[in-house]
Known about the structure:
Number of helices: 18
Radius of gyration: 21 Å
Mean pLDDT: 82
Strand content: under 5%
Order of helices and strands: HHEHHHHEEHHHHHHEHHHHHEEH
Number of strands: 6
Shape: globular
Distance between the termini: 44 Å
Amino acid sequence: MSEVTYNFRFRDAIIGAQMLLVAFGALVLVPLLTGLDSNVALFTAGCGTLIFQIITKGSVPVFLASSFAFIAPINYGVQTWGISATLGGMIAVGFFYMLLSFIIKVRGVGFVVNLLPPIVTGSVIAVIGLILAPTGMKMAMGIAGTESIMPERTALIISMSSLIATILVSILGRGILRLLPIIVGILVGCTVSAFMGVLDMTPVHNAKWFALPHFTTPSFELAPIIYFIPVALAPAIEHFGDVLAISSVTGKNFIEKPGVSRTMFGDGLATSFACLLGGPPNTTYSEVTGAVALTRSFNPAIMTWASITAILLSCVGKLGALLSCIPMPVMGGIMILLFGSIMVVGLNTLVQSRENLMETRNLVIVSMVIIFGIGGMSVGYGEFHLSGIGLAAIIGVILNLILPGKKTHDAS
């Protein structure tokens, strides 16, 4: 092996590790908020990205990891059916993506765009942020469920410290620092927690340096499977936006080659694999796409190194213990911004669609999706109940199909 080749590969490894660092904060946040294992999420993110690269023939420089769209559904699923059955329901989400990829291959991208136009997906994405908002607020105030785990004043000082730090880095940060606001927010929040005497590092001292992640075996029940499939509609359509974004950054048309049917299939297979082992569903990470644009690192091989780094880190027992030590208000402060950001992404999708929201058809769709989604409505039969994000997505799709005056959208 020549020195030039070695240096090139070493450079890719360093850049790949940096890409993982950019994704790390959001990657571990989902398991921290849902009770899943952070080390498992790291492992399945690494493996999922490798699976995606195999399916897309190593042509698309994206990183797959924990999806924020499933935070509220996972919490509901765990409370209702338990972790095992919830994982089984989320495996079905991956199969839904794969089925969608075959439909796209046969019917073309335009079929899905017309089924799920921005007026529907934007509203559903906004619902995701709005549904999660009370969770973030409770955690910021030190409330777990209905019980307070620390004085509200202490919790607010900690949560607002992490929130302010995250905002400042997002706005004022330069270079790679601007891509790490979540990590900085956690560090500041934990520092304040230590000064206030509420940071307990005992689990880190007791944990082993090297240990395999604690994988969880799924089980399969009809109710969670039916519940989770509608939830997948919004992340599925977001996938198109992510592929378009990385296409724009690199100057290559990934919609055409390897094709969005192949990228969707890779996303679905990665998601089913992740949930098979006890991890959250995967999705392509926009923050990593931003890092690709900033560093001009278009070589997909860097994501292979990011994946390998994630898999190796997942076997560091003390890392999982360290993440479990983060006080709840620290995460609550950051969540206020993140969940608000999800809502804004949905609103921005509506704005960019350039549709007149006061036009009766659009007004009905948007208002019904949001109100049914966050208003507490639940419909079902027997043990099966549909509510929240899933109900909002189904309402949006049905109204879009049956209301007169539907427009045909150009998939390009």
